[in-house]
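lol forgot to send this yesterday, sorry. struct tokens for the thing we talked abt
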């Protein structure tokens, strides 16, 4: 049997679905983002993470993105306001653009604070710009009947599902490595410290529990989307989502990520489920029945004609980009080349130290640097374990001391690291003058290969 691919895609992209799932997703996403941003400000992290440090680690090619002084408070306020506007569906398109730009700007200020769920939020923020998530149960639709659509293109909901599938699949695929599967690392290091947990605490030192969590986590990530997609197992799968993410939240300090994944997976439920949620919201807000009903067909527009090819290319990029680590030599967990933006979640315990030496290249005079003179404790910890951080910081030190009047400055580092319970071993070539290395090099020559 030969399948006509053109006919298949034409048929798929012409299908419609009720707008309720996307509306619920929009409401919950906006509320969770508003809470997350407010929490960040309330805890004083804007000051401690962005204003207090004198040096920030930039992403390659993005050094022009800098902390704008006290105006960063304004950026956080704008981001929070945009999140609220997304949730209530007020000026939705504008709010989505502003949220994506402001949140991504904050995320790119310092890669010290990179987290997978920050990247996920930026991706969702970008997708929402193009999706008709305000077609129902929004202020925009309430004020303008022409926006109301009970049915929207099915793919506008499926693209969120696909993004979740990518996250889970790559998270599961990354766990299929020898450390995770055959050494239960790094869980064998982390779990024993949770001995004070009720019920499970006494089991946290048991080797079989470490392997149960390791193998169970890999199986969960690789299979959960399939169970969510199949209606007979959907409720069971969602219960597993809740248990899994709440358990990881209890065991590990991973912020808002568990809650983001829990509410996101609701989009796999049928429209009837989401309509009940919207009906409950209607009762709370005392909205008249039928206020968001409109049987008009979803109309194509220039935006829609531009949206589909844009999002197809974007999703292809999301599928391929996590694979870039295959282009680099050595263990990705040691070199961390291609590690970020690839959905590798909590896969390594890496301890290290880096002692920087400033040398006069002509007379050999030298002195060592106190890292805490330049870096916060969080920055120093991240720097010592990641080769690109070490190189960037070393070059910063070279420029700093050159500007201070030192001549013929060369920068070297004595660095050792331990990965997933292994013994300390040399990490960065101590003979490599960091000032002479190309930060943009794809294969960092200053990294000493892992001796495993």
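and heres what i got for the seq, position by position
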């Amino acid at each position: 049997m030969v399948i006509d691919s053109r006919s298949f895609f034409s048929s798929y992209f012409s299908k419609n679905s009720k707008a309720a799932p996307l509306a619920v997703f929009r409401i919950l996403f906006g509320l969770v983002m508003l809470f997350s941003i407010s929490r960040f400000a309330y805890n004083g992290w804007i000051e401690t993470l962005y204003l207090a440090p004198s040096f920030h680690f930039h992403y390659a090619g993005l050094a022009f993105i800098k902390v704008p002084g006290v105006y960063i408070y304004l950026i956080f306020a704008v981001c929070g306001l945009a999140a609220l506007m997304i949730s209530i569906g007020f000026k939705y398109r504008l709010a989505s653009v502003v949220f994506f730009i402001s949140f991504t700007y904050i995320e790119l200020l310092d890669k010290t604070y990179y987290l997978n769920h920050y990247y996920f939020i930026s991706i969702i923020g970008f997708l929402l710009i193009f999706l008709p998530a305000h077609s129902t149960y929004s202020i925009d639709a309430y004020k303008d009947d022409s926006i109301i659509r009970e049915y929207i293109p099915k793919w506008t909901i499926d693209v969120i599902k696909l993004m979740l599938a990518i996250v889970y699949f790559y998270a599961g695929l990354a766990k299929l490595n020898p450390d995770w599967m055959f050494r239960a690392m790094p869980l064998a290091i982390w779990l024993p410290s949770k001995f004070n947990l009720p019920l499970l605490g006494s089991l946290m030192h048991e080797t079989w529990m470490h392997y149960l969590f390791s193998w169970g986590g890999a199986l969960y990530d690789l299979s959960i989307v399939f169970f969510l997609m199949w209606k007979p197992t959907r409720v069971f799968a969602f219960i597993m989502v809740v248990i899994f993410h709440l358990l990881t939240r209890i065991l590990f300090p991973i912020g808002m990520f568990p809650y983001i994944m829990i509410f996101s997976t609701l989009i796999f439920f049928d429209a009837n489920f989401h309509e009940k949620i919207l009906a409950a919201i209607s009762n709370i807000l005392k909205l008249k029945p039928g206020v968001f009903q409109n049987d008009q067909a979803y109309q194509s527009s220039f935006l829609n004609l531009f949206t589909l090819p844009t999002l197809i290319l974007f999703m292809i990029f999301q599928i391929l980009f996590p694979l870039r680590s295959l282009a680099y030599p050595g263990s990705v967990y040691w070199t961390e080349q291609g590690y970020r933006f690839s959905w590798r979640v909590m896969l390594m315990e890496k301890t290290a130290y880096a002692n920087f030496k400033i040398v006069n290249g002509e007379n050999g005079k030298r002195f060592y640097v106190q890292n805490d003179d330049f870096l916060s404790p969080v920055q120093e910890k991240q720097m010592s374990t990641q080769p690109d951080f070490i190189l960037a910081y070393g070059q910063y030190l070279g420029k700093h001391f050159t500007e201070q009047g030192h001549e013929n400055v060369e920068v070297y580092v004595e660095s050792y690291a331990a990965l997933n319970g292994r013994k300390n071993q040399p990490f960065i070539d101590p003979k490599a003058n960091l000032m002479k290395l190309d930060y943009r090099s794809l294969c960092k020559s200053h990294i000493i290969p892992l001796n495993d």
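The mean pLDDT is 91. anyway ping me if u want another try
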